[in-house]
C-alpha cells in the first residue's frame, strides 16, 4: 500500500525548490500559524515520568473546555493519529464505512487492521453499508459539516446493534456549535479531538478521544503507560483552560479566512469549501499553481485524487497574505 502524502513536508520542498525553513511560508497543513503561546516549563517536567495526576488534570481541562459529560471517558494519546491507528485493532474484521472524500488515514488504518473499507457519500449510504461508520466533521479537506442531530441519531442506532460512529473533530474548535463531544459517553460513539490544528500545537502530540468507559479503557490499555509526555500534558492543560485566547483566536481566524478567500477569488480561483483554518479552492491547473507557489517558497496542498483541488492554510500575518497575493498574480501573468 502506497504511503499517504500529508502537508507540512517542508524538508522535501526544500530539497526540490531550495531555500531554508525560515524562508518558506507553509500553508499546506491547516495548522493555526499563530498558535497558543507556550510558556517555559519547570525542568522537572522533562526529567520525570508523567504520573496519573498530571493526566487527570489534563482530562479535567478537556472536560471543561469541551463540555464533556461526566460519564464519558477521556482517552489521551500522542496525537489523534494514534487513536486513529489503535481503534481499528479493537474490533473484529468487518465492513467499515468512511463518509468521504476525507482524511485518508482513517480508511487506511481500518484496512490495515483487516477490515473491509467502503467510501460512501453520506450517512444514509454509510449506515446501509456497515455497523462502523467514520465521519470527519468539519470534513478535511472541503469543510463539509454534518449536523449534530443526524450524527447523534446515527450513533444511537449503531450503538443499539453493537456498532460504532467515529467522529473526527480535528478541526472542530472553529465550529463549536457543530460538535458532538457533549454527547460522548454513550455506547456507539467516539469523538476525537486534537490540539494540533486550532491551538497550533501539532508538535506537542496530544489527542483526545471521548467515548463510553469500556471502550475508553480498552483504548488506554492498547496505548500503554505514559502514552503522552509530561510536557505535552502540562501544555495541553494550560491551553485548554485559556478561554480568552480561544475566543480571540476564533475571531482572528474567521477574519483571516475572509481575507484569504478574497485573495483567491481575485486570483481567479474558485472557492469550493473550507473552515476558519483552511480554504479549499478549485483551479483547472491546480498542480501548476502549486508548483509556481513552491518556486516562490510557498507550500500549499494538492490532492492526486482530486486534481483540480488546492488547499490553503490561513496566513498568520498581512505580510504573508501579501506574499501569496504577489505569487498568484505572477502566476496569472504567465
TrEMBL record:
<comment type="pathway">
    <text>Cofactor biosynthesis; adenosylcobalamin biosynthesis.</text>
</comment>
<dbReference type="Pfam" id="PF00155">
    <property type="entry name" value="Aminotran_1_2"/>
</dbReference>
<dbReference type="InterPro" id="IPR015421">
    <property type="entry name" value="PyrdxlP-dep_Trfase_major"/>
</dbReference>
<dbReference type="InterPro" id="IPR015422">
    <property type="entry name" value="PyrdxlP-dep_Trfase_small"/>
</dbReference>
<dbReference type="GO" id="GO:0048472">
    <property type="term" value="F:threonine-phosphate decarboxylase activity"/>
</dbReference>
<dbReference type="InterPro" id="IPR004838">
    <property type="entry name" value="NHTrfase_class1_PyrdxlP-BS"/>
</dbReference>
<comment type="function">
    <text>Decarboxylates L-threonine-O-3-phosphate to yield (R)-1-amino-2-propanol O-2-phosphate, the precursor for the linkage between the nucleotide loop and the corrin ring in cobalamin.</text>
</comment>
<keyword id="KW-0169">Cobalamin biosynthesis</keyword>
<dbReference type="InterPro" id="IPR004839">
    <property type="entry name" value="Aminotransferase_I/II_large"/>
</dbReference>
<keyword id="KW-0456">Lyase</keyword>
<protein>
    <recommendedName>
        <fullName>threonine-phosphate decarboxylase</fullName>
        <ecNumber>4.1.1.81</ecNumber>
    </recommendedName>
</protein>
<dbReference type="InterPro" id="IPR015424">
    <property type="entry name" value="PyrdxlP-dep_Trfase"/>
</dbReference>
<dbReference type="InterPro" id="IPR005860">
    <property type="entry name" value="CobD"/>
</dbReference>
<feature type="domain" description="Aminotransferase class I/classII large">
    <location>
        <begin position="54"/>
        <end position="318"/>
    </location>
</feature>
<keyword id="KW-0663">Pyridoxal phosphate</keyword>
Amino acid at each position: 500500500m502506497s504511503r499517504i502524502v500529508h502537508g507540512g513536508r517542508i524538508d522535501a520542498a526544500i530539497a526540490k525548490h531550495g531555500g531554508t525553513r525560515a524562508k518558506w511560508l507553509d500553508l499546506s497543513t491547516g495548522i493555526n500559524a499563530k498558535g497558543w503561546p507556550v510558556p517555559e516549563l519547570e525542568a522537572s517536567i522533562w526529567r520525570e515520568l508523567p504520573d496519573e495526576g498530571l493526566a487527570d488534570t489534563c482530562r479535567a481541562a478537556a472536560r471543561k473546555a469541551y463540555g464533556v459529560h461526566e460519564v464519558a471517558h477521556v482517552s489521551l494519546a500522542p496525537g489523534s493519529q494514534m487513536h486513529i491507528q489503535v481503534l481499528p485493532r479493537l474490533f473484529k474484521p468487518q465492513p467499515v464505512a468512511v463518509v468521504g472524500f476525507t482524511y485518508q488515514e482513517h480508511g487506511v488504518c481500518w484496512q490495515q487492521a483487516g477490515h473491509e473499507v467502503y467510501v460512501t457519500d453520506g450517512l444514509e449510504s454509510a449506515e446501509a453499508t456497515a455497523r462502523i461508520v467514520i465521519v470527519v466533521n468539519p470534513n478535511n479537506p472541503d469543510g463539509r459539516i454534518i449536523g449534530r442531530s443526524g450524527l447523534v441519531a446515527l450513533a444511537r442506532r449503531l450503538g443499539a446493534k453493537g456498532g460504532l460512529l467515529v467522529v473526527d473533530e480535528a478541526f472542530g474548535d472553529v465550529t463549536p456549535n457543530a460538535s458532538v463531544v457533549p454527547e460522548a459517553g454513550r455506547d456507539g460513539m467516539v469523538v476525537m479531538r486534537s490540539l494540533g490544528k486550532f491551538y497550533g500545537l501539532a508538535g506537542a502530540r496530544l489527542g483526545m478521544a471521548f467515548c463510553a468507559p469500556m471502550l475508553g479503557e480498552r483504548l488506554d490499555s492498547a496505548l500503554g503507560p505514559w502514552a503522552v509526555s509530561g510536557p505535552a500534558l502540562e501544555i495541553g492543560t494550560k491551553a485548554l483552560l485559556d478561554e480568552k485566547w480561544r475566543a480571540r483566536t476564533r475571531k482572528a481566524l474567521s477574519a483571516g479566512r475572509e481575507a484569504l478567500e478574497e485573495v483567491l477569488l481575485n486570483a481567479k480561483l474558485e472557492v469550493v469549501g473550507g473552515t476558519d483554518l483552511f480554504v479549499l479552492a478549485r483551479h483547472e491547473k491546480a498542480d501548476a499553481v502549486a508548483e509556481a507557489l513552491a518556486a516562490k517558497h510557498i507550500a500549499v496542498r494538492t490532492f492526486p485524487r482530486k486534481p483540480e483541488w488546492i488547499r490553503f492554510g490561513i496566513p498568520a500575518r498581512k505580510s504573508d497574505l501579501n506574499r501569496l497575493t504577489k505569487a498568484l498574480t505572477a502566476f496569472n501573468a504567465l
